[in-house]
Task: inverse folding
């Protein structure tokens, strides 16, 4: 393993999103493994496990990002973990209220539909569908204006990428045979 | 001439300096007074209208003088011209041409009342603006966008150079206005930067621009209340470009479009499949949506694999992290085609696992839609994804049907 350190691999900061996510996810995995000591290995068990792991991945990613991003807040809200919810909501009440006031004002101006129709006719119909699609994809995307949605999408893409990286690394390290991987 | 006895000499006979001093005092209190803007603009104007050699002197001179609360010197020297010898050494470069002195004197008299009527009279250019400002003020009032209501007279009076500067300022505003949102100081800074830019480009007509810029701010609210407003609310200061409508809605639209295009460019860099030339907005959005979908599917797939691979193992967290970070998977960045046979997938779902069964990461798979030879759900799922049909259904199909499919096989 030490050879790899000499290659030109970017080393992550100790408190980067990557490490935070990795730590949380691994802890969640350990918990799941410890819970599931009795290995039935039926398909339903596997399916449940899959669902649990997927939920753990999303949750640990969102909590690694923290409440700074709208999409992470939206994901955290869905977690049936009341303590976390309360904590984050208390932290963010003031900030989000002010932000919402501002945002509503901007929305009043920029998002007035009759005005939009005056200026971009052709663009609207094509993009509205995709905009809706994007809103469905990005968590919490339904209540944002388009600019913010694009911001959140960019950050979400970055985080998804790190998530995929970390999970593949975990898989790689935990698999008994590493033959076909580089 | 004694500089130490400044306060006593200056105080009674020259009330203007008092007013000026007051404003100097409030300068440090972060009050956004238009008069402060006046003073700074007076500085800039002085700087621009005088010879270039004196410009840096004026700049360095005035703040230092203000710090000492001896602004009276500036005024008296400007007016009389006789005190130049007695002033600090930096002032010896101070220009003495009468036109400059007159102008500076005129501006210094603004600080008396700070009322806009005083400001307006010497500069008759502002008069046609006023009704426009007043009409616009209440309309725009609580809203964010400032009109470039100086834009029409700008067209008439200025050359293209100035407007070129304004354009860049406008763009700068729209961007900076977003970042420095609730900061009254930030707003002031923006104005000063803008004034500097202007003065660099068009020295003659800078007077009008600074005045005009100040006017909408004044007309949209009073002086005093506005001192407290900007920190709470955010105003996006925009300038209408030459030849464009100055309707508030169209300006807002323009801002919005610029923001959106900026973000789309950022997203272009993020999403690997986007070539720079191809993009229209819809195409870009398509690509982005596909990419996000594929990433989400990857996560699901990986979690599925993790579910089946490790029922027994405990993770050594620290050790794994040490290894993890140092090894980003190379397979992710390259476009590796999927293996053609589905049988590779089957072993991972058995308890005795051979994970390294040739499975490669479905990275940027959406780029190679026609070339994959997936069977069953994966095939359909990814193909449907490329046509950007409803994504949530697909992902759920993936999760639900695949274990079912495995059930059949096993």
Result:
């Amino acid at each position: 393993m030490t050879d790899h350190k000499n290659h030109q691999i970017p080393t992550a900061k100790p408190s980067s999103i990557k490490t935070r996510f990795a730590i949380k996810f691994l802890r969640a995995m350990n918990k799941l493994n410890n819970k599931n000591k009795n290995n039935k290995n039926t398909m339903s068990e596997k399916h449940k496990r899959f669902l649990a792991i997927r939920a753990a991945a999303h949750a640990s990613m969102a909590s690694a990002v923290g409440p700074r991003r709208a999409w992470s807040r939206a994901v955290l809200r869905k977690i049936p973990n009341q303590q976390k919810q309360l904590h984050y909501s208390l932290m963010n009440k003031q900030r989000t209220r002010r932000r919402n006031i501002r945002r509503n004002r901007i929305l009043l101006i920029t998002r007035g539909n009759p005005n939009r129709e005056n200026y971009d006719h052709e663009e609207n119909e094509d993009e509205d569908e995709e905009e809706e699609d994007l809103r469905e994809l990005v968590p919490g995307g339904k209540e944002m204006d388009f600019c913010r949605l694009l911001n959140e999408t960019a950050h979400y893409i970055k985080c998804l990428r790190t998530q995929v990286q970390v999970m593949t690394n975990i898989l790689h390290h935990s698999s008994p045979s590493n033959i076909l991987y580089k | 001439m004694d500089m130490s006895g400044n306060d006593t000499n200056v105080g009674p006979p020259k009330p203007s300096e008092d007013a000026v001093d007051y404003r100097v005092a409030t300068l440090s209190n972060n009050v956004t007074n238009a008069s402060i803007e006046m003073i700074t603009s007076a500085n800039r104007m002085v700087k621009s209208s005088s010879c270039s050699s004196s410009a840096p002197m004026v700049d360095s001179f005035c703040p230092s003088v203000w710090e000492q609360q001896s602004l009276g010197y500036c005024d008296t020297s400007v007016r009389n011209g006789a005190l130049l010898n007695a002033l600090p050494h930096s002032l010896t470069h101070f220009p003495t041409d009468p036109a400059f002195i007159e102008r500076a004197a005129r501006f210094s008299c603004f600080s008396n009342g700070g009322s806009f009527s005083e400001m307006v009279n010497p500069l008759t250019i502002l008069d046609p603006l006023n009704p426009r400002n007043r009409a616009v003020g209440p309309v725009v009032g609580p809203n964010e966008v400032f009109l470039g209501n100086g834009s029409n007279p700008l067209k008439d009076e200025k050359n293209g150079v100035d407007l070129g500067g304004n354009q860049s300022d406008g763009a700068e505003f729209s961007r900076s206005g977003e970042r420095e949102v609730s900061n009254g100081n930030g707003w002031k800074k923006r104005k000063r930067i803008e004034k500097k830019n202007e003065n660099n480009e068009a020295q003659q007509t800078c007077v009008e621009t600074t005045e005009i810029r100040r006017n909408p701010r004044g007309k949209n609210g009073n002086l005093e209340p506005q001192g407290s407003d900007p920190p709470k609310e955010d105003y996006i200061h925009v300038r209408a470009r030459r030849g464009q409508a100055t309707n508030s809605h169209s300006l807002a639209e323009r801002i919005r479009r610029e923001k959106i295009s900026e973000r789309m460019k950022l997203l272009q860099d993020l999403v690997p499949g986007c070539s720079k030339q191809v993009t229209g907005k819809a195409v870009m959005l398509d690509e982005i949506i596909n990419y996000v979908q594929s990433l989400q599917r990857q996560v699901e797939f990986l979690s599925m694999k993790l579910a089946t691979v490790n029922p027994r193992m405990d993770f050594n967290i620290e050790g794994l992290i040490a290894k993890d970070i140092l090894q980003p998977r190379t397979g992710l960045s390259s476009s590796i085609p999927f293996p053609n046979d589905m049988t590779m997938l089957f072993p991972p779902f058995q308890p005795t696992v051979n994970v390294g069964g040739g499975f490669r990461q479905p990275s940027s798979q959406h780029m190679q839609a026609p070339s994959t030879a997936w069977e069953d759900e994966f095939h359909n799922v990814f193909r449907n994804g490329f046509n950007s049909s409803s994504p949530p259904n697909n992902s759920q199909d993936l999760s639900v049907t695949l274990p079912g499919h495995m059930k059949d096989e096993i």
Summary: The radius of gyration of chain B is 33 Å. Chain B touches chain A through 83 residues (CB under 8 Å). Chain B has a mean pLDDT of 52.
